[in-house]
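Reply to dn_fold:

You asked what the input looked like. This is it:
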Amino acid sequence: MGFSRRRPKVDEHRAGDPGAVRAGALALLARREYASGELKAALARKGYDAGVITEVVAELAAERLLDDDRFAESLVRQLAHRGQGPARIRQALLEAGISAGRAARAIDKGPDWHALAREVRARKFGAEVPRDWPSRARQMRFLQYRGFSNDHIGSCLGDAPGVPDTDS
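and this is what came back:
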């Protein structure tokens, strides 16, 4: 029988205690930023009462100890620093429970996505833009996987000399 690293759920006396729920929430928030939906789910997994969780999360948001806008901007910065594009970051924000409008605002405040796409491509493949289709296609797939749009990809690959024009 293996050992579990999971801590036991809270006992039923503490599950409905707002002070205990707040302490649990603050312990989680001390480690990293959370979206309000993520924090509610984490507290529910620990066994706290759902009604008390909702009240405590609302109090923490009113005190600005929990802020979905701040979380979204932080996640955008973090993932952009890792070289991920806006589409992939939008998906991560939506999975964290951030609304589509709030995610769009956070992404708009993010870095210059065209410059980031160029930087990510150059870091992976070197400064020279490829001339042959197989290399271009491989780089395009890489950038699409990273979450960059066709517009971003086109701006960083440009019209390389010697590559036939497909618009004709």
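Residues 160-168 have pLDDT under 50 and may be disordered.
Hope that clears it up.
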